[in-house]
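Entry — protein

Goal — fold tokens:
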Amino acid sequence: FLPFQELQSRQFWCSLLAEATGTLIFVWIVLGASSPAGPKDVLPTSLQPALAAGLVAISLAHCFGKISGAQVNPAITMAFLCTRKLDALHASSYILAQCLGAILASGFFYLMLPSSAIGQLVTKVTTSVHCGNAGQALGMELFSTFQLALTIFAVEDHRRHELGEPAGILAIGFSVIGTFSGGSMNPARSLGPAVITGFWEHHWVYWLGPILGAVLAGVSYEFFFADSASREKLVACLTCRDIEIVEAASMSRSSLSAAVQAKSPDKEEHGTE
């Protein structure tokens, strides 16, 4: 009954449109920054697509952050699902919208790219695999996305308490900029060119690595590093109980403990007087 109500909600469809549009823009910009203008042009260094990804992430966070969270990444969406920040309906719908946006962006870019440089569209998806093997690429994708997702979860947590929005968005943006390895860190970004060109070699690496990295980062932060982290919160997540109630109770205990510690020095000072 509730999913049916959600499907009738304008906010639900606006959030899907935001994810599809955001992913379309993200993939378009990253592909553009990763490809040469022609066959005789030198391939861009890894710095150029990294800067493009970071800057467009900041822009999309301002545009769509309050609508859908501007996730534009199936790996991040899966991490939010596993930490119960998103329900199954929203998560699956977001991933479909993100994949659609990435495919559309890749298709448009394929049509506009000079015919002599179309081959470069494929190599951008599998560059890291050609530098080693699938296992090495999987490890790179996992650890790179772990760092990205950990930053996102930390920013979302601190934004609710003390960190301002601009600083949080910049932290996410520069976490993308900081990865110069040429890795994808985004399954949708790899899926789009693969669908358009039909090149699927080692494509599983760009799904398994980012999703594992993002989920590990999300679980690590939410249940071990966050202020609201507790054993009760982890048990509530595993047993499908209401995690928000447990989180609120944990935060209340932390606030009470901090207040008691703050008053203790005052009592000691009065005692010495």
The chain has two domains: 3-36+45-118+128-229, 232-262. The first helix runs from residue 2 to 7.
